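Sample 3 of the quickstart, ligand NAP:
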Amino acid sequence: MDTEGSLERMQTDYVDIYYLHRMSGVPVEKVAEAMGKLMDDGLIRGWGLSQVDVDVIDRAQNVTPLAAIQNICSMVERDSEAKIIPYCMENNIGFVPFSSIASGLLSGKITPQTQFERNDDVRNWVPQLSKKNIEGNQPIVEMLKNFADNKNATPAQISLAWMLHKYPNVVPIPGSKNKERIIENLDSANVELTDEEFSDLERSLKGLKVYGHRGLGGF
Ligand SMILES: NC(=O)c1ccc[n+]([C@@H]2O[C@H](COP(=O)([O-])OP(=O)(O)OC[C@H]3O[C@@H](n4cnc5c(N)ncnc54)[C@H](OP(=O)(O)O)[C@@H]3O)[C@@H](O)[C@H]2O)c1
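Result:
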Protein backbone atom coordinates (compact mmCIF):
# COMPACT_ATOMS: atom_id res chain seq x y z
CA MET A 1 0.00 0.00 0.00
CA ASP A 2 1.83 3.13 -1.21
CA THR A 3 -0.33 5.65 0.63
CA GLU A 4 2.36 8.33 0.71
CA GLY A 5 2.74 8.08 -3.09
CA SER A 6 -1.04 8.37 -3.54
CA LEU A 7 -1.21 11.41 -1.27
CA GLU A 8 1.62 13.04 -3.19
CA ARG A 9 -0.15 12.47 -6.51
CA MET A 10 -3.37 13.91 -5.05
CA GLN A 11 -1.35 16.85 -3.69
CA THR A 12 -2.65 16.47 -0.16
CA ASP A 13 -1.14 15.60 3.22
CA TYR A 14 -3.96 13.32 4.35
CA VAL A 15 -7.37 12.00 3.30
CA ASP A 16 -10.45 12.21 5.49
CA ILE A 17 -11.60 8.68 4.84
CA TYR A 18 -9.94 5.68 3.23
CA TYR A 19 -12.54 3.21 1.92
CA LEU A 20 -11.83 -0.40 1.18
CA HIS A 21 -14.45 -1.01 -1.51
CA ARG A 22 -14.37 -4.80 -1.54
CA MET A 23 -12.76 -7.45 0.62
CA SER A 24 -9.88 -9.29 -1.01
CA GLY A 25 -8.44 -12.49 0.47
CA VAL A 26 -6.68 -10.52 3.22
CA PRO A 27 -8.29 -11.05 6.66
CA VAL A 28 -10.14 -7.91 7.72
CA GLU A 29 -8.19 -7.78 11.01
CA LYS A 30 -4.95 -7.30 9.04
CA VAL A 31 -6.55 -4.55 6.95
CA ALA A 32 -7.88 -2.86 10.10
CA GLU A 33 -4.41 -3.00 11.66
CA ALA A 34 -2.87 -1.34 8.59
CA MET A 35 -5.58 1.34 8.62
CA GLY A 36 -4.87 1.99 12.29
CA LYS A 37 -1.23 2.56 11.45
CA LEU A 38 -2.13 5.03 8.68
CA MET A 39 -4.32 6.87 11.20
CA ASP A 40 -1.50 6.93 13.78
CA ASP A 41 0.82 8.31 11.10
CA GLY A 42 -1.69 11.08 10.31
CA LEU A 43 -2.09 10.00 6.68
CA ILE A 44 -5.80 9.22 6.98
CA ARG A 45 -8.40 10.52 9.42
CA GLY A 46 -10.64 7.48 9.34
CA TRP A 47 -11.48 4.40 7.35
CA GLY A 48 -14.47 2.57 5.95
CA LEU A 49 -15.65 -0.66 4.34
CA SER A 50 -18.16 -1.27 1.56
CA GLN A 51 -20.59 -4.13 0.88
CA VAL A 52 -19.87 -5.94 4.13
CA ASP A 53 -22.04 -7.78 6.62
CA VAL A 54 -22.14 -7.25 10.36
CA ASP A 55 -19.67 -10.04 11.24
CA VAL A 56 -16.91 -8.47 9.12
CA ILE A 57 -17.74 -5.01 10.47
CA ASP A 58 -17.49 -6.28 14.05
CA ARG A 59 -14.16 -8.02 13.45
CA ALA A 60 -12.75 -4.83 11.91
CA GLN A 61 -14.24 -2.55 14.55
CA ASN A 62 -12.53 -4.55 17.31
CA VAL A 63 -9.12 -3.79 15.82
CA THR A 64 -9.50 -0.20 14.53
CA PRO A 65 -12.83 1.63 14.95
CA LEU A 66 -14.52 2.41 11.65
CA ALA A 67 -15.79 5.81 10.49
CA ALA A 68 -18.26 4.62 7.84
CA ILE A 69 -19.88 1.66 6.11
CA GLN A 70 -20.92 2.18 2.48
CA ASN A 71 -23.46 -0.50 1.51
CA ILE A 72 -26.20 -0.69 -1.09
CA CYS A 73 -29.39 0.57 0.54
CA SER A 74 -32.67 2.03 -0.64
CA MET A 75 -36.41 1.44 -0.38
CA VAL A 76 -35.88 -1.63 -2.59
CA GLU A 77 -32.57 -2.88 -1.10
CA ARG A 78 -33.09 -3.28 2.60
CA ASP A 79 -30.63 -5.99 3.70
CA SER A 80 -28.63 -3.55 5.85
CA GLU A 81 -31.61 -2.53 7.94
CA ALA A 82 -31.90 -5.63 10.14
CA LYS A 83 -28.49 -5.72 11.81
CA ILE A 84 -25.96 -3.50 10.05
CA ILE A 85 -27.48 -0.05 10.50
CA PRO A 86 -28.37 -0.76 14.17
CA TYR A 87 -24.79 -1.99 14.76
CA CYS A 88 -23.43 1.19 13.16
CA MET A 89 -25.74 3.34 15.28
CA GLU A 90 -24.62 1.60 18.48
CA ASN A 91 -20.96 1.97 17.57
CA ASN A 92 -21.02 5.54 16.27
CA ILE A 93 -20.28 4.51 12.68
CA GLY A 94 -21.76 6.50 9.80
CA PHE A 95 -23.84 4.50 7.33
CA VAL A 96 -23.53 5.63 3.69
CA PRO A 97 -26.18 4.12 1.37
CA PHE A 98 -25.10 3.84 -2.26
CA SER A 99 -27.59 3.35 -5.10
CA SER A 100 -29.93 5.11 -2.68
CA ILE A 101 -32.49 5.86 -5.41
CA ALA A 102 -32.02 2.37 -6.88
CA SER A 103 -29.95 3.57 -9.86
CA GLY A 104 -32.74 5.96 -10.85
CA LEU A 105 -35.73 3.59 -10.48
CA LEU A 106 -37.09 5.50 -7.47
CA SER A 107 -36.98 8.81 -9.35
CA GLY A 108 -39.96 7.61 -11.37
CA LYS A 109 -38.20 8.67 -14.58
CA ILE A 110 -37.40 5.13 -15.73
CA THR A 111 -40.16 3.26 -17.57
CA PRO A 112 -40.29 -0.25 -19.09
CA GLN A 113 -39.53 1.46 -22.42
CA THR A 114 -36.31 3.05 -21.12
CA GLN A 115 -33.22 1.81 -22.96
CA PHE A 116 -29.72 2.31 -21.67
CA GLU A 117 -27.91 3.10 -24.89
CA ARG A 118 -24.33 2.23 -24.02
CA ASN A 119 -23.44 -1.44 -23.59
CA ASP A 120 -21.21 -0.59 -20.63
CA ASP A 121 -23.95 1.33 -18.76
CA VAL A 122 -24.02 -0.39 -15.35
CA ARG A 123 -27.82 -0.05 -15.28
CA ASN A 124 -27.98 -2.87 -17.85
CA TRP A 125 -26.97 -5.20 -14.99
CA VAL A 126 -29.05 -3.72 -12.18
CA PRO A 127 -31.61 -6.46 -11.44
CA GLN A 128 -34.44 -4.01 -10.64
CA LEU A 129 -33.94 -2.37 -14.04
CA SER A 130 -34.54 -5.29 -16.38
CA LYS A 131 -37.63 -4.55 -18.51
CA LYS A 132 -39.62 -7.23 -16.67
CA ASN A 133 -38.61 -5.97 -13.23
CA ILE A 134 -39.21 -2.30 -14.09
CA GLU A 135 -42.76 -3.41 -14.93
CA GLY A 136 -43.02 -5.43 -11.71
CA ASN A 137 -41.76 -2.49 -9.65
CA GLN A 138 -44.27 0.01 -11.08
CA PRO A 139 -46.59 -0.20 -8.02
CA ILE A 140 -43.69 1.03 -5.84
CA VAL A 141 -42.91 3.83 -8.29
CA GLU A 142 -46.60 4.80 -8.53
CA MET A 143 -46.97 4.84 -4.75
CA LEU A 144 -43.92 7.11 -4.50
CA LYS A 145 -45.18 9.41 -7.24
CA ASN A 146 -48.54 9.85 -5.49
CA PHE A 147 -46.88 10.42 -2.15
CA ALA A 148 -44.47 12.94 -3.68
CA ASP A 149 -47.28 14.84 -5.45
CA ASN A 150 -49.15 15.24 -2.16
CA LYS A 151 -45.97 16.45 -0.48
CA ASN A 152 -44.99 18.83 -3.28
CA ALA A 153 -41.70 16.98 -3.68
CA THR A 154 -40.24 14.55 -6.22
CA PRO A 155 -40.13 10.75 -5.89
CA ALA A 156 -36.31 10.82 -5.65
CA GLN A 157 -36.55 13.34 -2.81
CA ILE A 158 -39.10 11.21 -0.94
CA SER A 159 -36.95 8.10 -1.26
CA LEU A 160 -34.04 10.00 0.29
CA ALA A 161 -36.13 11.88 2.90
CA TRP A 162 -37.48 8.47 4.02
CA MET A 163 -34.02 7.21 5.01
CA LEU A 164 -32.96 10.55 6.48
CA HIS A 165 -36.08 10.48 8.67
CA LYS A 166 -35.59 6.88 9.66
CA TYR A 167 -31.98 6.91 10.81
CA PRO A 168 -29.80 9.57 12.48
CA ASN A 169 -26.53 8.11 11.20
CA VAL A 170 -27.37 7.75 7.49
CA VAL A 171 -25.83 9.91 4.74
CA PRO A 172 -26.97 8.82 1.26
CA ILE A 173 -24.78 9.56 -1.78
CA PRO A 174 -27.14 9.72 -4.79
CA GLY A 175 -25.20 9.98 -8.04
CA SER A 176 -26.06 12.31 -10.92
CA LYS A 177 -24.27 13.96 -13.82
CA ASN A 178 -27.00 16.57 -14.02
CA LYS A 179 -26.81 19.83 -12.04
CA GLU A 180 -30.60 20.22 -11.58
CA ARG A 181 -30.91 16.66 -10.27
CA ILE A 182 -27.99 17.12 -7.91
CA ILE A 183 -29.75 20.17 -6.45
CA GLU A 184 -33.07 18.28 -6.39
CA ASN A 185 -31.44 15.42 -4.49
CA LEU A 186 -29.67 17.74 -2.05
CA ASP A 187 -33.02 19.42 -1.36
CA SER A 188 -34.34 16.14 0.02
CA ALA A 189 -32.68 17.22 3.27
CA ASN A 190 -35.36 19.95 3.44
CA VAL A 191 -38.26 17.54 2.89
CA GLU A 192 -39.46 16.80 6.38
CA LEU A 193 -41.75 13.85 6.88
CA THR A 194 -44.14 13.79 9.82
CA ASP A 195 -44.15 10.59 11.86
CA GLU A 196 -47.56 9.81 10.37
CA GLU A 197 -46.31 10.29 6.79
CA PHE A 198 -43.29 8.14 7.53
CA SER A 199 -45.49 5.37 8.96
CA ASP A 200 -47.75 5.54 5.89
CA LEU A 201 -44.69 5.10 3.66
CA GLU A 202 -43.39 2.17 5.69
CA ARG A 203 -46.83 0.52 5.60
CA SER A 204 -47.13 0.99 1.84
CA LEU A 205 -43.63 -0.38 1.23
CA LYS A 206 -44.35 -3.42 3.38
CA GLY A 207 -47.32 -4.28 1.16
CA LEU A 208 -45.42 -4.02 -2.13
CA LYS A 209 -43.24 -6.73 -3.63
CA VAL A 210 -39.78 -5.75 -4.89
CA TYR A 211 -38.71 -7.31 -8.19
CA GLY A 212 -34.94 -7.78 -8.45
CA HIS A 213 -32.31 -7.83 -5.70
CA ARG A 214 -28.64 -6.90 -5.75
CA GLY A 215 -27.82 -7.45 -2.08
CA LEU A 216 -24.48 -7.22 -0.32
CA GLY A 217 -22.89 -9.77 -2.65
CA GLY A 218 -23.76 -7.67 -5.71
CA PHE A 219 -21.42 -5.46 -7.72
N1 LIG B 1 -19.47 1.29 -2.76
C1 LIG B 1 -19.84 0.74 -3.89
O1 LIG B 1 -19.59 -0.43 -4.15
C2 LIG B 1 -20.61 1.55 -4.90
C3 LIG B 1 -21.24 0.93 -5.99
C4 LIG B 1 -21.98 1.72 -6.88
C5 LIG B 1 -22.06 3.09 -6.69
N2 LIG B 1 -21.41 3.66 -5.63
C6 LIG B 1 -21.49 5.11 -5.40
O2 LIG B 1 -22.86 5.45 -5.17
C7 LIG B 1 -23.19 6.68 -5.79
C8 LIG B 1 -24.35 6.59 -6.74
O3 LIG B 1 -24.93 5.33 -6.81
P1 LIG B 1 -25.58 4.77 -8.17
O4 LIG B 1 -25.15 5.62 -9.32
O5 LIG B 1 -25.29 3.31 -8.21
O6 LIG B 1 -27.15 4.88 -7.96
P2 LIG B 1 -28.19 6.06 -7.57
O7 LIG B 1 -27.52 7.18 -6.89
O8 LIG B 1 -29.30 5.35 -6.88
O9 LIG B 1 -28.76 6.49 -9.00
C9 LIG B 1 -28.01 7.20 -9.95
C10 LIG B 1 -28.80 7.22 -11.25
O10 LIG B 1 -30.04 7.88 -11.05
C11 LIG B 1 -30.16 9.02 -11.88
N3 LIG B 1 -30.67 10.10 -11.02
C12 LIG B 1 -30.06 10.63 -9.94
N4 LIG B 1 -30.85 11.57 -9.37
C13 LIG B 1 -31.98 11.63 -10.12
C14 LIG B 1 -33.16 12.40 -10.05
N5 LIG B 1 -33.35 13.29 -9.08
N6 LIG B 1 -34.12 12.21 -11.00
C15 LIG B 1 -33.95 11.31 -11.98
N7 LIG B 1 -32.85 10.53 -12.11
C16 LIG B 1 -31.86 10.70 -11.18
C17 LIG B 1 -28.79 9.31 -12.41
O11 LIG B 1 -28.87 9.77 -13.76
P3 LIG B 1 -28.28 11.21 -14.20
O12 LIG B 1 -26.80 11.15 -14.00
O13 LIG B 1 -28.69 11.28 -15.64
O14 LIG B 1 -28.97 12.23 -13.34
C18 LIG B 1 -28.10 7.95 -12.35
O15 LIG B 1 -28.34 7.22 -13.56
C19 LIG B 1 -21.92 7.15 -6.48
O16 LIG B 1 -21.30 8.07 -5.62
C20 LIG B 1 -21.07 5.90 -6.60
O17 LIG B 1 -19.68 6.16 -6.54
C21 LIG B 1 -20.72 2.92 -4.74
